[in-house]
Amino acid sequence: MKLQGIRVVDLSLFLPGPHLTMMMADHGAEVIKVEPLSGEPTRNIGLRKNGESVWFRNTHRGKKSLCLNLKDPEQKAQLLALIDSADVFVEGFRPGAMARLGLDYETLIARNPRLVYCSISAFGQTGEKRLKPAHDLSIQAESGTVFLNEGSNGEPCSPAMPVADIAGSLMALSGILMALLRRSETGKGDYLDISMQDSLIAWLPNAVGPVFAEGRSPVVKDERSWGGNAMYRIYRTSDDCYLTLGGSEVKFAENLFAKLGRPELAEICKRAPGEQSEVIAFLQAEFSRRTMAEWEAWFDGLDVCWSPVRQLHEALDEQHLKSREMVFEDEQGNRHLGVPIKFLDEPAQVNTRLPELGEHNGSLLNTGLEA
Q: Which of 107, 186, 253, 290 has the most CB atoms around it within 10 Å of its CB?
């Protein structure tokens, strides 16, 4: 596997860091999760199956567990000795916390010059908000994406996805792999300052047009991606289901309106978003005349970007995801999210086993230390 021989020491908690290091474990890295005496918090958050939380199972598979009191000098010394042999160190605490523990970059790089040290925080290691506490919702609110998540009543809605967390995870993974690649040439490690807000802001190139071009925030309901384009919008069917049109290219509009018997409406779809209300009203009325099943049959074979709005359990039960191994079941009947990075050579080999809290203290520290 691509990361075989890479040792990762992970002090992070909750989602961004654990998700990042799980992806590394899936591709062969040895990931050592350092847990506080109380354990990783997600061991006890959310629904459980077969004795483990689903959240923990889908962020900690294939890892080893050390349970340490880092305020104890002896246990901290044991961890430092372990880090001396590590390739990657990941932490997700507020700036300054690692320095207070004597685990800051300067200390660790002096001991292990090849170490790639990754800090993931809400707002980064510098700047006015560096010490401000925040999880995903607060970061999204600070970054303007809750504002963009506007409901039909014109008020902001709580985002459905933890995109600041996952954006931070993916940016950290990319940065770590870049640093490891460079280290293969220089022999030197590096330090990564990953801000979840920075990572989220970097995901906005299709949203900042009004801001960068005209110095204003977008009118959400009139923008292309959020309802202003007739061919990029959600519609209700007669049985109170929903479908989406998700491709605003003119060819798709021409195909759709030709079959609906209104080819002239395709011309209106060439107008700017927010200027297509006539077409939106027509489609709202049209889609409300038939059930979802009827529309599925009607769209069959038609070259138009459309999809039903599936409930989450329906989406995860779809055969296509099973074929792609993005949802799979282990021998105990636990369901798992799969590996999205698919190599032809040396593909990931998922180890679904979860570590008990402190299970590897003895083998890794060779001290018999109990959790």
A: 253
Q: Are 367 and 78 in contact (CB under 8 A)?
A: yes
Tell me the pLDDT tens digit for each residue of 157-188: 999 999 999 999 999 999 999 999 999 999 99
Burial call 17-28: b when 16+ CB within 10 Å, e when fewer: bbbbbbbbbbbb
Q: What are the strands of the beta sheet with 30-35, ordered from one edge?
A: 64-67, 30-35, 7-10, 88-91, 116-121, 190-195
Query: 73, 48 in Cβ contact below 8 A?
Result: no
Cα–Cα dist 180/334, whole Å: 34
Domain(s) of CATH 3.40.50.10540: residues in the chain: 7-203+339-365
pLDDT, the chain, mean:
95
Q: Which residues pair with 242 in a beta bridge?
A: 236
Only one residue has tokens 């490891």, namely: 180
Residue 25 pLDDT greater than 60, yes or no: yes
Q: What confidence tens digit (pLDDT) does each residue in 303-314 have?
A: 999 999 999 999
Start-end ranges of CATH 3.30.1540.10 in the chain?
A: 232-311
Cα separation, 170 vs 162, in Å, equals 12
**What CATH homologous superfamily does 232-311 map to?**
formyl-coa transferase, domain 3 (3.30.1540.10)
Helix-strand-coil percent breakdown of the chain, rounded to 5?
40, 15, 45
If you classify domain 7-203+339-365 with CATH, what class do you get? alpha beta
